[in-house]
Write a structure and sequence with these properties.
Radius of gyration: 17 Å
Number of strands: 4
Number of domains: 1
Structural class: alpha+beta
Order of helices and strands: HEEEEH
Distance between the termini: 22 Å
Largest sheet: 2 strands, parallel
Strand content: 25-35%
Number of helices: 2
Shape: flat
């Protein structure tokens, strides 16, 4: 989807509503992704890293309060527009 969007000149910004905030363990910012791997000895092991590190969208923003959405969207459009103009 991201490649197709780029070919069409589109930019997707994924907006994540995270009501918990970074100080809460339930926040997406504190979630981890676990992948089963083989270690040097060939034994099963686990690779643990922050969930958003491999998030499938290149551009995303985490918003804690839905009341902030208008400002966040406005700022993202403004910033993106300036970036596109200077490319």
């Amino acid at each position: 989807m991201a490649v197709e969007a780029k070919e069409k000149g589109l930019l997707y910004v994924f907006i994540i509503l995270d009501k918990y905030g970074i100080k809460n363990n339930n926040s997406i910012l504190n979630m981890e992704s676990v992948t089963q791997i083989k270690n040097e000895k060939g034994e099963d092991d686990f690779d643990i890293k922050p969930y958003l590190e491999d998030f499938p969208f290149s551009y995303y923003v985490v918003v804690e309060h839905s009341s902030d959405l208008p400002d966040v969207i406005h700022t993202n459009i403004k910033t993106t527009s300036k970036s596109i103009i200077y490319l």
